[in-house]
């Protein structure tokens, strides 16, 4: 907990972001709980209902580069306030939806708001407060946000049971206005508070510019891992069933994944500042291809499935932290917001594309098709992380001297 002792203001910022990120990620998880109700009322197939989430991620990705200048010029607080206001009409449009056009329009609006408020904005705000020491704060935040589905799935079920899914949309719109917006307005920092040195306001870095090729490697590694994690997370139960598990067994194993992922994030958080995002990524990333190879050669043995869930859950959980913190290794406060906004485009597009693509591979070629592609992507990610480890600013500087 050294990062809290070194700057007590982080505790208040983390509390604000923990609440608002839980609300943000939890509320957009509506289809997971009320998907069949949405399909019945709107005359859509269930896959079409879940395509709303893909529209959300694509919109978030397309909007992210446009927000880079806004984050740099106005700071995360103002951008996230505006994003919250933009997202509210999305739930109102969803409430009034009677046909597919309004349904998908609602997800476009929610994606526009989410690009400013979900994850990227939170990481930028923490970087404004803590600079390159924000890794542990991001890890702490991800411990909480990893529980969003555990909190909001039953919440959505309860609200839908009492007010219907349309009423639930209005409740969530009100939650953004009455809870998230005031927290950003009165609880979030107004601008860069401290620097990496903890003293004066942030100044442009005099360090050598990071080569474009290094940024490209960061983008590729993060995007490939996002494809693997989001895709496998979406099709995991069907993947286990394709391995020969009974539906109840597949559900039982799949339900363990979230707990293992959060536990892995906790272990990384407890490590304090002893390692950076690249080290986390190398250790966690290596576990993923090992898990996939084991599942591919085990022919559905129960013990192998259990080990797969353990390795994949731990690896994917820690890699989520690595995806958010690898840019901290290379970029200071002045460049971090721009870098994260640019990375958000391919990351969100990968998140949108991977579930349907892996589902298609699963349908056409069985579990080996989906596992084969994710195995290749995972191995390439590890190789890129090895290259990035050699390009750490400290390592390069030492080589020059």
Automatic annotation (TrEMBL):
The chain crosses the membrane at residues 12-34, 46-67, 79-97, 103-126, 138-159, 165-186, 215-237, 279-297, 303-331, 343-363, 369-388. Gene3D superfamilies: MFS general substrate transporter like domains (1.20.1250.20). It comes from the Bacteria. The keyword Transmembrane helix applies. One of its GO terms (molecular function) is transmembrane transporter activity. SUPFAM superfamilies: MFS general substrate transporter. The keyword Transmembrane applies. Residues 13-393 form the Major facilitator superfamily (MFS) profile domain. This is MFS transporter. Keywords: Membrane, Transmembrane, Transmembrane helix.
